[in-house]
Amino acid sequence: GPCTECSCSSGKEPDKDPSHTKKKENEDRLCVPKIFFGTRTHKQITQISRELKRTAYSYVPMTILSSRDYTCIHPVVSNSSNRNEMCVELLEGKQGKSCSYYHGVHKLSEHHALQSASRVYQAWDIEDLVSLGRRFRACPYFAARELMMGADIVFCPYNYLLDPQIRDSMDIKLKDQVVILDEAHNIEDCARESVSYGVTESQLRAAREELDVMVNNNIRQKDHEPLRAVCCSLI
């Protein structure tokens, strides 16, 4: 059936958050379900895209979601130990600098969209996208995310589908979509990991000290006292 019209475009509710408007438009465009193909590792995605290339479906619009560890090509950020934070800081322009690769994203996504439309498209893997990104001086990380909008098949590691925080940050909507999980017997471990969190004893002690200050200064005691008790019992 026809897609519903985006309520944002009617102008009745001017939403302050432009990303919300964007999300809404994306949702409305998704009439045909996408296939989300989850794998255990990034390496397996490379194998699967190689197999896809050999089939009659090689021209189907696709994308691969992966972390900046695999797709950042900024000379400084890519060599940093905390790529995510550095990338966000650059994009916010805090130091008066920005990322020229990010501003070239459209060159990369348009190249793939054109190839797909003329059916000269070939299934690709992360390495292909990165080398093309270097050629166009365009960011593969954000290009892959942009390509998700028009993609029929989206490859990604399991945790992108299972972890609600990653799903949210990646703008992945699984309602009414097709989800395929490769080697699904690994899902239990992955699900367990996505809801687990590791803390060190020194982090717990630091948290307790901060909570002591809060409680002693009568700052939201009702909230902070139970938290302090949890820290104490864990220590």
TrEMBL record:
GO biological process assignments: double-strand break repair involved in meiotic recombination; nucleotide-excision repair
GO molecular function: ATP binding; DNA binding; DNA helicase activity; hydrolase activity, acting on acid anhydrides, in phosphorus-containing anhydrides
Region described as Disordered: spans on this chain: 1-26
Keyword annotations: ATP-binding, Hydrolase, Nucleotide-binding
A Pfam family hit: DEAD_2
Keyword Transferase set for record: no
Compositionally biased tracts (Basic and acidic residues): 12-26
GO cellular component, one term: nucleus
InterPro entries for this protein: DinG/Rad3-like, Helic_SF1/SF2_ATP-bd_DinG/Rad3, Helicase-like_DEXD_c2, P-loop_NTPase, RAD3-like_helicase_DEAD
UniProt protein name: FANCJ protein
Organism: Oreocharis arfaki (tit berrypecker)
This protein's encoding gene: Brip1
